[in-house]
Amino acid sequence: MTHMSDLSFTHLDPLGRARMVDVTPKEPTHRRAVARCKVNMLPETTAAIVNREVKKGDVLSVARVAGIQAAKRTSDMIPLCHPLLVGAVSVNFEVGDDFVAIEVHVDTVDRTGVEMEALHACSTAALTVYDMCKSADRGMVIGELALWEKTGGRSGVYRRADGADGAESAAGDGAAT
């Protein structure tokens, strides 16, 4: 387990002021990130989504486009996030009895990772689901937003363990992915 004293914050200069990390010396490599979250709701709300009965329109289609757009605009919203060329974004949904699960994959060939793009896209898709359904179900809860996978770059592969503890595993160690 990583302790706070083991962490170094690369977005702080020696005086503790915010700075943007210099990635110019790095070589561009293929990088990928996967993020997931869930919108919990009433069963009547998921039924309305599946049956396309939501008055604002096709919830999942609009949420998919919102997620894609968010991935491309992440650096506009996260102050120290580098602008980068997003090569591909996919936003997928699983509709359960009382939830919509969202999974986003983002790929690039660049000098820095796309974790923030995947997380931003996932949360924006979830917020769009909420916005489109709020007139019928204001009790919806957005949660479980997490990075599930990251590949590429100097730090290598990260895969979130299947368990609730959020422990990470390295590629090839036999851990569940």
What does this molecule look like?
- The protein has 177 residues and is α+β, with helices and mostly antiparallel strands.
- It has a single domain, classed as 2-Layer Sandwich (Alpha-Beta Plaits), CATH 3.30.70.640.
- The protein contains four helices and six strands.
- The protein has a six-stranded antiparallel beta sheet.
- Strand 5 and strand 6 form a beta hairpin.
- Helix 2 runs antiparallel to helix 4 (115-133).
- The longest helix has 19 residues, at 115-133.
Reported CATH architecture: 2-Layer Sandwich
Termini distance?
Answer: 18 Å
Strand arrangement, major sheet: 2-3-1-4-5-6
Residue fraction in strands? 25-35%
The CATH homologous superfamily corresponds to Molybdopterin cofactor biosynthesis C (MoaC) domain
The best one-word shape is elongated
* Class from secondary-structure proportions: alpha+beta
Give the radius of gyration. Answer: 18 Å
Brief write-up:
This protein has 177 residues and is of the alpha+beta class. It has helices spanning 43-50, 59-72, 74-77, 115-133; strands at 29-40, 88-95, 99-110, 141-151, 158-160, 168-169.
